[in-house]
Amino acid sequence: MINLIWLVMIAGGILYAGYTGKIDVVTQSSINSAKTAVDLALNLTGVMCLWLGILKIAELSGIVKLISLLMSPIIRLLFPGVPKKHAALGAIVMTISANMLGLGNAATPLGIKAMQELQTLNPKKDTATAEMCTLLALCTTGFTLIPATIIALRSAAGSVNPTEILAPTILVSLISTVAVLIVDRICRILYR
Fold it and tell me: Domain named Nucleoside transporter/FeoB GTPase Gate: which ranges (predicted)?
């Protein structure tokens, strides 16, 4: 359906430009937008490589296990059905860490890995567990301490102060995370 909407919008714009005799504007805008998209993708690739590299080094050096131990009281509270020292806990920590660094694209494969690990604990393979739902809720809100991707986008767009969004981002993501965790707990009680 979304593809149809985009097709209608693009075709409508081209037809209108042709009707008004300004098809050259569409051509020039298409070329400029393609160049901007490539530049933006290259800028974001650098940021993603940096933070993914840091996360991989943290995983290989044992820092993830250390963070997992430090976060274990919170993680145990949020994911009570996951046994201690299970691989799912490390995957969950990696996912939450990527979200905290504002790396939504990096958090996706990490979240999939965490879901796969949680699935190994699932007695009903065709139904999501409460822990899976909690992880999905947390990934959806994505509590962010350092919105690296947004800062990179703002920097690439020429922002004078790309980091001025730090405080609002932290506040909004904290509120949304707390709200989703409250709803998650209510749903756990209602749908036992």
Answer: 42-150
Distance CA 170, CA 143 (A): 7
Q: What would you report as the CA-atom Rg of the chain, rounded to the nearest whole angstrom?
A: 21
Please give the residue range of the domain that contains residue 140: 33-190
Cβ atoms of 169 and 147 closer than 8 Å: yes
Q: What is the model's pTM?
A: 0.68
Residue 21 lies in a domain: no
Please count the structural domains in the chain.
1
Q: Does 10 reside within a domain?
A: no
Check residue 8 and give its pLDDT: 92
* 162 within a domain of the structure (yes/no): yes
pLDDT tens for 161-182 read 988 988 998 899 899 999 999 9
Between CA 169 and CA 13 the distance in angstroms is 34
Quote the distance between the C-alpha of residue 6 and its chain's center: 24
DSSP-based helix, strand, coil % in the chain, nearest 5? 80, 0, 20
